[in-house]
Amino acid sequence: MSFAFQQAGFEILRHIPVLMEEVITFLRCEPGRTYIDATLGGGGHASEILKRTAPDGVVIGMEWDEDALTEAKNALMPFGERVKIFRENFIHLPDLMKAESVDGILLDLGLSSFQVEKEGRGFSFRGDGPLDMRMDQRMDQTAADLVNHLSLEELEYILFHYGEESWAKRIAKAIVQEREQEPIETTQTLRKIVHRTIPRRFQSRRIDTATKTFQAFRIKVNDELENLRKILEGGWMLLKKGGRMCIISFHSLEDRMVKETFRKLEKEGEIRILTQKPVTPSEEERRRNPRSRSAKLRCAERV
Ligand SMILES: C[S@@+](CC[C@H](N)C(=O)[O-])C[C@H]1O[C@@H](n2cnc3c(N)ncnc32)[C@H](O)[C@@H]1O
Q: What are phi and psi of 254, to 5 degrees?
C-alpha cells in the first residue's frame, strides 16, 4: 500500500497502489470509458486508469478524507476535465450518479499512507497520538469516544467481531478498569493496556499484539463493514451491462463479505464472478511493497 522514506532529511510519504496491472486488466481500460474510483486515496489507481483511457476516458472519484483528497487532487490535476472528484462516503454514489452508468468501479479498501503514517490521526501505534481513527474528519465519534464510553459488553463485541480478537473479554475488562482511573486518550495508552492484558506467551512476534484491537476500533469508528455491505448491494446499479466491479480488501472480514455477496448475486443471476479465487500480489510486488502482502482482489461483471 505505502511506504515512508527519507530524502534530504524530510520524511516523504508515498502511497504505492497495489495490484495495479491486475486492476487495469480486469477493468478493461480503454479510451472513451468511464470509471468510478470509489476510494481515491493518493490517486494512484485513478491516474493509471486515466492514462490507459486517454484521450477521453473519465474517472469519477470519491474520497472522504481531507488529507488524501488533497493528495489525489494534486496527482490528478494534469488530467483536467477528465476527472470529477467528490468528498463523500462512497455509499452515497447511487444518489450522486442519478441515472448515469459507468464501465467499471474500483474499491481499494483500507487506509492510505497519509492516514497510517501521520501520528495525529491515531491509526498507528508506532508513535504516540490522540486516539482518533476517523478517516473522515467530519465524523463526530473518535476511537477515544468509543473506548471511554461503550459498555463492557459493547467493547467485547467490537473486539471479538471486528478484531477477531480471542482475548476480547479480557481486553474489554482491562479497558473499563483503566478508564475508571483516567480516560484513555492516546494510542500508546491503549496499546499498553492490550500488551499488559495478553499473557506474553500468547503474544505474536510477527505483528504487534495490539493490531487486532486497533483494527476493531478503526472498523467501528468508520463503519467500514456496513459501508462495504451497502456498496456491494447497491453499486451494481451504477454499472452498464458488462461493467465490472473490482474490490481490493486487506483483512478477512472484508474479503469474506465480498466473496459471500458475489456468490449470492451470481446465484440470483445478477453478476458473473471473474475471480474464483482472490488475486494476490506477486512475490515481486510483495518484496517491493511489503504492505501489499494482505491484499486480495475480487472482480465480477454485471450481466
Ligand atoms: C487504500 S486507499 C486507496 C488508495 C488508492 N487506490 C491509490 O492508488 O492511491 C483507501 C482510501 O479509501 C478511502 N475510503 C475508505 N472508505 C471510504 C468511504 N466509505 N468513502 C470514501 N472514501 C473511503 C480512505 O480514506 C483511503 O484514502
A: -70, -50
Q: Is the pTM of this model over 0.85?
A: yes
Question: What would the pLDDT profile of 5-41 be if each residue is shown by its tens digit?
Answer: 333 333 446 789 999 999 999 999 999 999 999 999 9
The residue assigned the cell 471486528 is: 162
Q: Read off the pLDDT of each residue in 105-131 and give the average, rounded to a whole number.
A: 88
Residues 6+ apart with CB under 8 A from 56: 31, 32, 82
Residue nearest to atom 18 of ligand 1 (CA): 89
Q: Which of 14, 39, 69, 293 to mutate to test the pocket of ligand 1 (most atoms within 8 A of CB)?
A: 39
Does residue 233 contact residue 186 with C-beta atoms inside 8 Å?
Answer: no
